[in-house]
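Our preliminary data section would be incomplete without showing what the modeling component actually yields. Below, a chain of 264 amino acids is followed by its predicted structure, encoded as C-alpha cells that our downstream tools consume directly.
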Amino acid sequence: MFFHAHPDDEALLTAGTMAMLAAEGHRVVLVVATAGERGLADMEPGEALGQTRMRELYTSAALLGCARVECLGYGDSGLSPQGGVAEERPDNAFIDADSEKAATALADILQEEQADLLTIYDPAGGYGHPDHVQVHRVGRRAAEIAGTPIVLEATVNRDPLLKALRLAGRVYRFPPEFDVRTFESAYSASDTITHRVNVRKYIKQKRASMAAHTSQASGGESDRTLAVMLKIPVPLYRLVFGTEWFVRRDLPPGTRLSHPFEQV
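Predicted structure:
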C-alpha cells in the first residue's frame, strides 16, 4: 500500500516502484489523504478541482497497475506563502485531523488488504508540506495498529539533488522566492537511505503517471515543477527519474537494498 497526501504525489515519488511491483504480480493499493482541492492550478481551488484531481489520480493508478484507490476524505490543508501551515484552511484539514482516528481509518484498509508493506514520507514530509508531515505521523501509527511488517519512507537523495541545483544556478537565474539552501534539510541524506530502486524499466509508466495529472502542469505565473519535468527528453528523464529512494528505519545502519521486499 502506498499512502500519499495528494493526487500527483504518487507520480513524483513512487510511480516506478508501484509499476514494478504490479508487474511482478503484487496487489498494489494507492491511498491519498486528500483530493488536493487547494493545489495550484488554472482552476479555482475547491470541490471542482478536487474532483478533477481525483479523476487524474484514477487515471494514473490505472497506468501503474493499481488494484484499488482510496481517499481518506480529509481536506487539503494548503500551504502558506512561506511554505508552512496555511492560516486559512478547511475545517476538516488533514493537518488538523485527530491522528489516532486517521490512523485507524488507514489501518482498517491495511488490515482488509493484509498489506505486507506501507510507504509513507520521512518525518519532515520531504520538503515540509504540512500534509506530508501528517502522512508520516498517521502512516507510522496505522502500521503499528495493523501490524504491517514493512514501512518505507519515500524520499529523494538530496545530495545529488543539491549538487545539480547548484550547478544549474551557475547558468540559470532561479526566481527570487526559490532558495537552494532550503534543500539542505529537505528529503534525506545519502547515508540514511536504505533502498535505491532501479525503475528504469518502468520509466514509460512513470512518465505517463506524471502526464495524467494535467491540472498540476499549469497554474501560477511560471512553469510548474511537473510541467518542467515532462519537458525533459526521454533519455535524460530515464537517467534523472530512473531511481526511487526509500528509508526503512528498522534496518541496521548502512544497509543498502535494491528492492522493497529484499531481506524479508
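The chain has a mean pLDDT of 88. The chain has one domain: 2-157+187-247. Preliminary results of this kind motivate Aim 1 of the renewal.
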